Every structure is written in C-alpha cells, then in structure tokens.
Amino acid sequence: MQHQPIGIFDSGYGGLTIMKEIVNQLPGYDYVYLGDNARAPYGTRSYETVYAYTLQCVKWFFEQGCPLVILACNTASAKALRTIQQNDLPGIDATKRLLGVIRPTSEIIGQLTSTGHVGVMGTTGTVQSNSYLIEIEKFYPDIKVSQEACPIWVPLVEYNEYRSPGADYFVKKHIDQLLQQDDQIDAILLACTHYPLLMEKIMQFVPHSVTVISQGHIVAESLQDYLQRHPDMADRCSKNEKRSFYTTGDVADFNNHASVFFGEAIEAVKLVL
Ligand code: DGL
Fold first, then answer.
1. 15 CA from centroid of ligand 1 (Å)
2. What is the whole-number distance in angstroms between the Cα of residue 14 and the centre of ligand 1?
3. SS3 (DSSP) at 191
4. Among the CATH numbers 3.40.50.1860, 1.10.530.10, 3.30.450.20, 1.10.510.10, which is that of 6-100+217-270?
5. Which residues of 105-259 form beta strands (DSSP E)?
6. Over the stretch 171-204, which tens digit does the pLDDT of each residue have?
7. What is the model's pTM?
8. pLDDT digits over 24-46, tens only?
C-alpha cells in the first residue's frame, strides 16, 4: 500500500493556525498544505465560486495521493464540503476522505459556555450559510447563537495589517456589534481560521467574562479521534514528519508571512492551477 501525506487546505494563511495545532497533536504524520492565496479571500465570494475553487484544490490534493484532506477553512467547509462529499467524491475516489472544521467545533461548543449564549464571528459566506446555527442546533438545541460577519478581518490578515493600529477600529466594531445582539454571550467562537492572528487585538475589546475560542486545538483533537476510530485511514497516511507547503500566490510573500503564522521557517512551492 502507498502511504501519502494528509492534505490541509485554506484560502490563504488561516489554515496554518489549524495546521500548527494538528502538527503539535499529531507530529508523526506527513502534511501538505495548500493556501489559495492568489484567490483569497473566499469569504465574500458566491457559493458557486467557493465551491469551484475548493473542488479544484481538493482534486489537486487527491492527485498528489493524499488519502485524507482537511478543509481548514470555514468558508469552504460551509459552502463546498457537503457538495463535494456527496456529489464529487464518489466519482473521484470513494476511498478518499474530506473533513471540515464546522462539525467538530459545533460538537463541543456546549462545553465552553455557562450561559448557553454563544457568539459566532465569521466571514460573510460562513455567516450567510447559517452552517453554525444548523450544526450547533443538532448538538445543543437550547443554545442561543448570535452571528457577526467581519468581512474586513481576513484582508487585515492577508495583507499583514493585523497588528496595525488601523485594525483596532474594525476589530472593536465587530465585537461591539456582536455583543449588542445578546449581552448574555459568554463564549465567542472565532469561526474563521484567519481570526486567531487577530487574537491580541480581539482580547483588548472583549470583556474578561467572555471566553474567546479559536478552532485549532478543537480540529486537531477531532482529527486525532478520527484517526483512532479509522485505523485503516491512519495506516494509509505516511509518517515521516515531513511538511510541505504550496501557495497559488507569491512564494516570497507566503514564506515571510507563513513562517510567522506557523512558527517555523517555511519554503513554499508555487502552484499554478
Ligand atoms: N480562513 C477562511 C475561513 O475560515 C476564509 C477566509 C477567506 O478567504 O475569506 O473562513
């Protein structure tokens, strides 16, 4: 049997916040990361476009041999995951698997709130899809979920402005708007993998009584659990501690930013799709 790396996909840099936690949790496996930086952000694009871009990237991972791909992007998970799993995967290779980030997060969100009032911050696409409302309702029908779309937060990260003083205004604005919807919110989920990069600023504007949740460790633990429950899939994944990085955008730019986000030097390869 051929052993191949686990694929991790995001529209840009955000998935690196997930990959970092996955590598911490499961260091033995090989990983290949693809950031579609040339076409980011996805968050304001239509369903058709996000689906088409995501499918193209997922096919690329499968062509590389990856048996398992994680969509480390909420927007792609909200708008493309289900359709690819149900309509495309059987025709591509029914033995391959594609997992997203919304379900594992929704499964445990109830453990992180005492009031039962949760805030979800995401891209316009994720919020408009209502995916979190639908998924959380399945596991915790009594939890009240309020959502806030923060369309400018991803560009702040992609364009390296997430530490700039100018970012403060937009970070505060969206947190205030979320908390105004429901003053009993005691847990805010950062439902976009780019947002943990803004954590320092977010914490400045969130009351101490509110917990801010990023998804990296949740997705990493869920993947570990998945691989334990599917030893056949765990067997198909190669384990040489190798990591490779691809971007559809500018390689030098990716290397500079991504090394900071990931916490170690990265040498990416340019991918032309
Ligand atoms: N990081 C992605 C997410 O989790 C999307 C960012 C974007 O491309 O808009 O939603």
1. 8
2. 7
3. coil
4. 3.40.50.1860
5. 117-122, 144-149, 187-190, 211-213, 243-247
6. 999 999 999 999 999 999 999 999 999 999 999 9
7. 0.95
8. 999 999 999 999 999 999 999 99
